[in-house]
Amino acid sequence: MPADKKSLSLIASAIKKHSTFFVAGHLKPDGDTIGSALALGSLLHRLGKKAKLFSKEPIPEYLRFLPSIRSITITPKVTGTFDCAIILESSALERMGNLIDSTQAKTFINIDHHATSTNFGHINYLDPGASSSAEQIFYLFKHMKLPISRAEAQNLYIGLVTDTGKFQHANTSPDAMLMAAHLIEAGVKPFEIYDKIYATKSLVSLKLLSLALSTLNVTEEGTIAYLEVTQDMYRASGASAMDTEDIINYCMMMPGIKIGILFREIENSKNEVKVSFRSRNRHDVNQLARLFGGGGHKNAAGCTVQGTIISAKKQVIPCAVKLLLTGLAVRVK
């Protein structure tokens, strides 16, 4: 069980006190953000609350089979006010695209498992030791003594399995595996989830993967692999940023690779590159991401770099080499 029972108690009290709720997660929504939001929204509705779920950006195709997925409204800005806003895995309101501002809710609850999170909420449930936000919401169900329905279990399992990389990342803890067992008991069928999330790819996403893999390269030491996705590749394949979710993982398939990096041109932007990091064991790529204004986890993180892919490589790769050599991420001129 999590140690932060105080935060869970404060959240439970806020839920009982308030009537209207705003729920949203970070930009470029993933399985954890969406699955956690759907499970939380269901919890609120079961308690007789009016909860509205939002995302600034579209739901990825691979998540559109989830129960109640249509309950999430896609919008650039939310109007109106709420008793309570619950923000999932976002270090600040900017991270979820400023869907609302600080004047639109009486109480802000910040639920996050990233080490880079800040205490921007009136209530902050921050647990860097949790595998996922889904794990945090799971413990909220337990704290409030609410049985988990099959649909809620499926949503929570999506968050858990995607953020642990099919239970292969370093954040796969005993608590995460116990949670998975509870969710399977509640009706989740892991083979069905695997088939929908990992064994099904659209033609355009496979075409984009092919183009990205053609750029795969390694540093001279053979310990860092990197590849890229450009706007030309989006046009040639018919794919979009939502089809890039797993591409970086191919970097880590080669023996001897300790850090993988994906450089991705941001759609409709001439001078911004999204950089994603993966690593093995003790190599803390969260340090790298924070060096460039981003963040994440020890073995999975990301940031945005101004400039072209060429300039981003020149800035980032030497810092990654330095991290491997010294254990510290510092700017390399």
Main sheet makeup: 6 strands, parallel
* C-alpha termini separation: 46 Å
Q: How many separate structural domains? A: 2
Overall shape: it is: globular
Strand proportion: 15-25%
Helix share bin: 25-40%
Instruction: Report the total helices.
Output: 10
CATH topology of the largest domain: inorganic pyrophosphatase (n-terminal core)
- The H-level CATH homologous superfamily of the largest domain, spelled out, is inorganic pyrophosphatase (n-terminal core)
Number of DSSP strands?
A: 12
Keywords for this entry:
333 residues, inorganic pyrophosphatase (n-terminal core), alpha/beta, globular, Diaminopimelate Epimerase, Chain A, domain 1, 12 strands, six-stranded parallel beta sheet, 10 helices
